[in-house]
From TrEMBL:
Transmembrane segments: 27-45, 86-109, 153-170
Family: Belongs to the acyl-CoA dehydrogenase family.
Top EC class, one word: oxidoreductase
Cofactor(s) in the UniProt record: FAD
CDD domains tied to this protein: GCD
Gene3D superfamilies for the chain: Acyl-CoA dehydrogenase/oxidase, N-terminal domain (1.10.540.10), Butyryl-CoA Dehydrogenase, subunit A, domain 2 (2.40.110.10), Butyryl-CoA Dehydrogenase, subunit A, domain 3 (1.20.140.10)
Catalytic activity, as annotated: glutaryl-CoA + oxidized [electron-transfer flavoprotein] + 2 H(+) = (2E)-butenoyl-CoA + reduced [electron-transfer flavoprotein] + CO2
Protein name: glutaryl-CoA dehydrogenase (ETF)
The EXPERA domain, residue ranges: 25-169
GO function terms (MF aspect): fatty-acyl-CoA binding; flavin adenine dinucleotide binding; glutaryl-CoA dehydrogenase activity
GO biological process: fatty acid beta-oxidation using acyl-CoA dehydrogenase; fatty-acyl-CoA biosynthetic process
Pathway connected to this protein: Amino-acid metabolism; lysine degradation; Amino-acid metabolism; tryptophan metabolism
SUPFAM superfamilies cross-referenced by the UniProt entry: Acyl-CoA dehydrogenase C-terminal domain-like (SSF47203), Acyl-CoA dehydrogenase NM domain-like (SSF56645)
Length: 617
């Protein structure tokens, strides 16, 4: 995916202190400065002008316009009533009026340490100093006929021209002193400058960081954006924004109109998988095989937008992407990838993932499903056992099933690709009567001596590493997704309480309501930041599995609390599916349980913190 960068509204200069946007007065200053320099260069070539004694463009122009100023010093020596004298001083006054605002601007810019404007000011100061030096010398040493008072007045007029060079010299000295202080040569005495010294084994500072740009609260505060409180938008790439926007459009325009009926009737429309395939949502982080190849953050944003409509739709997508396509891409043979991934990416075939069993949920190592070698067909396998609470299973074309390979030493867990169309003894009945995730279809996988060719075993993984890798991928998407459901509840409750009046005032004006809204608002924003950070680490290959447990546990817990509070804020209307919140609440009860229960993730984090496993106690 590609994106075009939008144009900036005004010029920008980037410096060590960050990005500094130029204001109109800065642009006017630079424009005048450019005209000043260019005019001075061209006028210096004019035969009637002596540049050594006429430094400013306005005076140079006056020298050309009137023959009376061919010898400016002669004019200065004339009687004050002489027309040439009056002309000369009029132009000097005009030049002074034009220069003073620039001098004041320069002093302010330098005093505020505006480093982005330092170079233009430096050029301006050097130019002024070099052009003024001959004039000042001429007035002081080469015109003995001038009266002392007259000489003093002229020097006073030209003093403002020297303000910028003097301040630049002072500032340069201050910067030099600061840098010497950073290296320990000069002690920095400015309380606003901070230095961090990293001392090597030799006792010398290896690296010094000057934080003179630390903001002490002087910058203008921004208006709070409650719709994006921690500015998530600015942390996304252009591609991620495009993915997010397309996901939002699809979810709100195509999925939302269907959800109430789907939830009421407990029906899943298989065409949704093809629609998601066309959008590039299925297996979106995989490179090649018809997949989009986007970042993990982009995948999280997709999950978030889909689950704003319903957790069931996100769950169907998540199973296809993280639990079916991921293990084939990660652990499958080249032939398996070519055979299955393109069709799965398009949604032409649907997959399911079989790990949980009727007697073994949080303890998959104790699974009873077995895979033994087929005595009638050496190299092939026979699978027997059952899996339960399997999303997509009644409509699935293929199944990723994990079973103990009993003929191998230690009976390691192996992964197999089962194909419904060609394998006898394979059934996938639906589980009816759910109160959550009713918009996605759930069932079992029953295997009665199912013969599986050797080429359908995932060759590049052995043990629980395989299924846990898949679950970590799915848990990551869940952490993003449930916050989307929480956002939907929050927005519904906010709008409802603003419009609903009790005792003559909107509900949103009461403290109890605002407390609940503030908590939901904060939990969602902070949770999204955690998901974003984990996504960035995932893309950089710096992810620890415990990080995923943390955000899955946190997001699911907070999202369910938010849904419950929002349902409560709607009173009796909170249980109507017209407002969606009760549906989200029921779904979030499920997400807190599946892909690792809330308590199991607590134990995973507890083991990481203490180093002591507590699973078997």
């Amino acid at each position: 995916m590609t994106a075009s960068l939008s144009g900036l509204s005004s010029p920008v200069i980037t410096s060590r202190t960050g990005t500094s946007r130029l204001r109109p007065r800065d642009i006017l200053f630079f424009a005048y400065f450019a005209i000043h320099i260019i005019a001075g260069i061209f006028l210096d070539w004019h035969p009637l002008v002596d540049p050594a004694i006429i430094p400013a463009p306005l005076l140079k122009i006056s020298s050309i316009l009137t023959d009376q100023l061919k010898d400016p010093m002669m004019v200065l020596r004339t009687h004050p009533t002489h027309s040439s004298f009056l002309w000369m001083h009029s132009f000097i006054a005009g030049e002074l009026i034009l220069q003073l605002p620039l001098c004041i601007y320069a002093v302010i810019a330098i005093s505020k340490n505006c480093q982005s404007r330092f170079l233009p000011l430096l050029c301006y100061g050097v130019h002024t100093a070099t052009t003024m030096q001959p004039t000042m010398a001429h007035l002081l040493f080469r015109e003995p006929q001038l009266h002392v008072c007259q000489r003093s007045v002229l020097l006073g007029i030209y003093v403002p021209f020297l303000i910028v060079p003097v301040f630049l010299a002072y500032d340069s000295f201050r910067v030099l002193k600061k840098q010497l202080g950073a290296f320990g040569l000069v002690e920095a005495k400015n309380s606003n400058q901070y230095y961090i010294h990293h001392v090597t084994s030799t006792g010398q500072p290896a690296r010094c960081f000057s934080s003179s740009t630390i903001n002490n609260g002087s910058s203008k505060l921004q208006k709070y954006n409650w719709e994006d409180p921690l500015n998530l938008e600015s942390q996304l790439t252009d591609e991620e924004r495009i993915v997010r926007d397309s996901s939002t459009s699809y979810a709100q325009e195509q999925l939302l109109p269907r959800i109430i009926d789907a939830y009421r009737t407990e029906k899943f429309d298989k065409s949704i998988m093809k629609e998601m395939g066309e959008m590039g949502f299925l297996g979106s982080t995989i490179d090649g095989y018809g997949c989009a190849g986007v970042s993990s953050v982009a995948y999280g944003l997709i999950a978030r937008e889909i689950e704003k409509v319903d957790s069931g739709y996100r769950s169907a997508m998540s199973v296809q992407s993280s639990l079916v396509m991921h293990p084939i891409n990660e652990f499958g043979s080249p032939e398996q990838k070519e055979k299955f991934l393109p069709s799965l990416a398009k949604g032409d075939i649907i997959g399911a993932f079989g790990l949980t069993e009727p007697n073994h949920g949080s303890d998959p190592a104790s699974m009873e499903t077995t895979a033994r070698k087929d005595p009638a067909s050496p190299g092939n396998f026979v699978l027997s056992g059952s899996k339960t609470w399997i999303t997509n299973s009644p409509i699935a074309d293929i199944f990723i099933v994990w079973a103990k390979s009993v003929d191998e030493e230690g009976a390691p867990i192996r992964g197999f690709i089962l194909e419904k169309s060609s394998m006898k003894g394979l059934e996938a009945p639906a589980i009816e009567g759910k109160f959550g995730l009713r918009a996605s279809i759930t069932g079992m996988i029953l295997m009665d001596e199912v013969k599986v060719p050797a080429e359908n075993m995932l060759p590049n993984v052995k043990g629980l590493k395989g299924p846990f890798s898949c679950l970590n991928n799915a848990r990551y998407g869940i952490a993003w997704g449930v916050l989307g459901a929480a956002e939907s509840c929050f927005l519904q409750a906010r709008q409802y309480t603003l419009e609903r009046k009790q005792f003559g005032s909107p509900l949103a004006g009461y403290q109890l309501i605002q407390s609940k809204l503030a908590k939901a608002h904060s939990d969602i924003a902070i949770g999204l930041q955690a998901c974003l950070q984990v996504g960035r680490l995932k893309d950089k290959g710096e992810l620890a599995p415990e990080m995923v447990s943390m955000i899955k546990r946190n997001s699911c817990e907070k999202a369910l609390e938010i849904a419950r509070d929002c349902r409560d804020m709607l009173g009796g209307n909170g249980i109507s599916d017209e407002y969606h919140i009760i549906r989200h609440m029921n779904n979030l009860e499920v997400t807190k349980t599946y892909e690792g229960t809330h308590d199991m993730h607590s134990l995973i984090l507890g083991r990481a913190v203490t180093g002591l496993p507590a699973f078997s106690h």
